[in-house]
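Hello forum,

I keep getting stuck at the same step: I have a sequence, I want structure tokens, and every attempt I make locally crashes halfway through. Rather than fight my setup again tonight, could one of you with a working pipeline run this one for me? It's a single chain of 300 residues.
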Amino acid sequence: MNSTAAVHLVDASIYVFRAYFSIAPEFVDVDGRPVHAVFGFLNMLLSLLHEEQPSHVAVCFDESLTTSFRNRLYPPYKANRELPPPDLALQFDYCQRLSAALGLRVLVDGEYEADDLAGSALHALRAQGLRGVLVTGDKDFSQLLGEHDVVFDLTRREKTDAAAVKRKYGVRPGQFADYLALTGDAVDNIPGIHGIGPKTAATLIAHFGSLDALLERVAEVPFLRLRGATQIAEKLRKGRDDALLFRLLSRIALDAPVPLAAADYACARPDGNALDPLLDQLRFGPLTRRRCREWRQRFD
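Reply #2:
Ran it on my machine without issues. Output:
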């Protein structure tokens, strides 16, 4: 397979939420129910398809905020987040149906989150010659980056590669979960080790190479040129088990149940028998319909 071929892995949920809170709720379906998030998501997705002309795509959704395997490991995980508004559940369903009708692979699972699904797909497809384009605005995806991969936030027009992660955070992508284990992640309600901020965490991980090596050699920490190095060493001794748990929570799983063959992610011809009735139900206008037709024409 061509070494430049890519699989575009879309973190759908972040773009559905962005659209929900940024677009006025003036779009309604034939039953009068809000579909403004669907409108925003679909137009983002069509922009990606037309601009990138991808050959392989997976659109990855979060099934729930409360049923991830991480909730069993650590009940406070994401407990700081409000549950989605009731009208958003229908809109997520529409977004999944539209993605499938456009001929794209949809990934969703009650145990694994969108980043786990994307990471597991990329892990399987790298061996088949595909590089990854991770379409998201979530920094956690940084840990998935290999030499030829990028994180692409389409709405902000930002592309981030492995070198940019190192410049921004001071750690390599493969060290990112170790880094988050120390700093925590307020978005996911992971506290980290109290008193260890981003700069200190990056210094420690860069010096020792990994969280495991840091914890094994914690006796060396007081001799580093760090302000409060002795206190930091004590925090690490007391927080050893917490740090290992927080890394487990922060690390993207690579063994989620996803299709493993590149052919399973190849873009297929849109299904007009499914797509056209959906657009009718959603009451979307001629511009959106034209863009859908243009994508379909690629397969004629």
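The first strand starts at residue 6 and ends at 11. If your local run keeps crashing, start a new thread with the error log.
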